[in-house]
Every structure is written in structure tokens, then in C-alpha cells.
Amino acid sequence: MIQDRFAGKVMVVTGGTSGIGKAVCLRAGAEGAKVVIAGRNQARGQAIEKEIREAGGEATFIQCDVTQKEDIINLYAKTIEIYGQLDIAINNAGIVGDSKKIEDLTDDDWFSVVNANLNAMFYCIREEIKYMLKNENGGAIVNTASVAGIRATPAGPAYVASKHGVVGLTKSTAMDYAKNNIICNAVCPAGTDTPLTEAAKEKIYAKIAELKAQGIDPSEFMKNSMIAGKTQTLQGRNATSEEQASTILYFASDEARHITGSIVVADGGFTVY
């Protein structure tokens, strides 16, 4: 913890009710930020708000489904209404989607992932820039991408494409707004112990169990699923949400003011080999 690192700063965190987003909210609150926790789950969001407030911090939960443009517009309008400014934005919400090769991908499969991961990121950044341009000191945007934003993974065309899009959007935003003192960087995690990661794995293992129950050899499915690729980091373990939050919050802080347009790999060495 770095005491008062974010004192006087207003920070919005999408996907803030679980996993990496929750870890970001809790640490930012402990380090002095006024935290806006954005997410769909009201009970979890309010619980995090309460935890931050009881620890002496300042936080507000605003319910938001990032696949709904009006929810995103409302999120930032309410933030300004409550706190009067927006200094830091952590665009962390996203989904993995089903493990399918492109020949098996339906339109709904494709658009559900692209809407949640890329279109939502665009709508968020557009609103964030609008308010940060009003700040004398600009602002900081950190986007959660993935190692899938810099390389491919098996049976994940929508996810890989959406995260590559996040990387491109990050660089474009950094280029256009550096002159306004707005920095924009992306963090690319590999495997991280979060509810989202566990849900994705459970879906795959449930499909394997279903095939076995039908007397079908699941080896072909396994060869063509996300788990067919490399899953181990050099460290031989997943990251924790708190480790990813540490990286994200560095790039959100004034310590990183000279860094923009960077795509930061926080992967335990996953992409080294």
C-alpha cells in the first residue's frame, strides 16, 4: 500500500464487483481514491462500497451493464454529479465467451464478446475523454486487455479479436490525447485467479463431462478448445487479482505520468516462451 497515492482523485472502475476490478477498488480506496465501483451485481457492488467506507475510504456503487450504451453514459454523468470530476478510469469489464473455432461461432457468440470487450471499451473511453478534457491536469486511463491481445489462443477468435482491438484503441487514444495530458495504457494479464477465469474453465470441463456421458471421446473437443494451448507461466502459477491490481494502479498513478500508449504484459512470463 502507498498511503494517499490517490488522495483527491476520482476513479471509476468498470467490472469492479469481482476479480481484478474488486482488487483495484479495494486498494485504490485504501490509497485515498474516491472510488466509483461499476458493475451489474448490486449486492456485490454495495458490499465493496461498504467495505471501503468502513475502512475509512470513500466509495460509491453505480449499477452498470457495459453492453448497454445508456448505462455507460449514465455511469459517468452520475460520477460527475456526485464527485464533480473524473481523474482516473480503469476499464476492466469483459467476458471470455465460449471456446469455439470460427466455423462453429454463431453471430450471437461473436457479438456478445465483441460488445462486452471492445464496443463497451469504446463507449467508456469516449465518455471518459469528454470529462477528462475539462481537467487542467488531464487524466489517466488504464484498459484491461489480455495476452490474447498480443497473440492468439486456441478456439477463441472473438476474444482474441476483441482484445487485439483493445490494444489498438489504447494506442490510438494515447496518440490523440497526449497533448491534453491524458495518458492511456493497457495491461495484458495471462491466467489470473478470478471468478471469470474459473467460469470459463468450468464451461470447458462441463462440456468434456457431457461428451463422456454421451459415450463420445472428448479428445477432439479438447484439442480445439482454449485449454489446448499453453496454460502455464514461467512461474508455474496464475497471478492473483491483487498482483494485477498492483500493476494497473501503478499506471493509474502520477508515478506513470510519462508513460502512455504502452501495452504492458503482466503474465508471469507466459509470452516469453
TrEMBL record:
UniProt keyword list: Oxidoreductase
A Pfam family per the record: adh_short_C2
Sample GO molecular function, one term: oxidoreductase activity
Domain of life: Bacteria
SUPFAM superfamilies, sorted: NAD(P)-binding Rossmann-fold domains
Biological process annotations from GO: bile acid metabolic process
Key word Oxidoreductase present: yes
Protein family: Belongs to the short-chain dehydrogenases/reductases (SDR) family.
Protein name per the record: SDR family NAD(P)-dependent oxidoreductase
